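FORM 12-B: Structure-to-Sequence Request
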């Protein structure tokens, strides 16, 4: 039998520089593999930190969403409690709009009526009609000027001759007689 030898045992003497180069190669390969493992470990640490930051951010967002949902629920409850009042406000607004339209119509009507009355006063005049009892003649007095101011209220002006008086109104179709009041001399009735 021959001596057993392993492949790791040198059968021949090796060159020492070759040993040095092989050792250098193994050291550098070990350093390379160690660097790769360190890099993978750092990547895992970075991923762990990112996951923790993302979890914290999502937790904050969950709290914010819960607060928003709670606030929205509170606002909906407040809106439902205010809804009858809002309906009343809408009804009041409709009533105010109708009242405003009625006021505009009334204003327009009063302006038309004022214009009609002014036009009547300008184009029609009133005449006083008196009967003289001593000689039976009819006395017609012309209308007073528009700027004439009457006597204070409650003071009766005496007539020289008193009987039933009427007013004659000059209308578009001629003279129109209207019944008047009785007037007596010295303001007595």
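FORM 12-B RESPONSE
SEQUENCE OUT:
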């Amino acid at each position: 039998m021959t001596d057993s030898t392993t492949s790791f045992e040198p059968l021949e003497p090796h060159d020492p520089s070759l040993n040095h180069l092989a050792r250098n190669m193994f050291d550098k390969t070990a350093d390379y593999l160690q660097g790769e493992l360190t890099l993978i470990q750092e990547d895992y640490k970075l991923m762990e930190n990112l996951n923790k930051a993302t979890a914290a951010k999502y937790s904050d967002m969950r709290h914010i969403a819960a607060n928003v949902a709670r606030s929205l629920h509170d606002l909906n409850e407040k809106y439902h409690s205010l809804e009858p009042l809002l309906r009343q406000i809408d009804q009041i607004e409709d009533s105010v709009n109708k009242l405003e339209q009625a006021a505009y119509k009334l204003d327009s009507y009063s302006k038309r009526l004022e214009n009609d009355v002014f036009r009547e006063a300008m184009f029609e005049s009133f005449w006083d009609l008196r009967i003289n009892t001593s000689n039976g003649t009819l006395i017609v007095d012309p209308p007073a000027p528009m700027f004439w101011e009457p006597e204070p209220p409650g003071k009766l002006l005496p007539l020289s001759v008193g009987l039933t008086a009427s007013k004659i109104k000059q209308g578009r179709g001629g003279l129109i007689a209207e019944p008047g009041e009785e007037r007596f001399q010295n303001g007595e009735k």
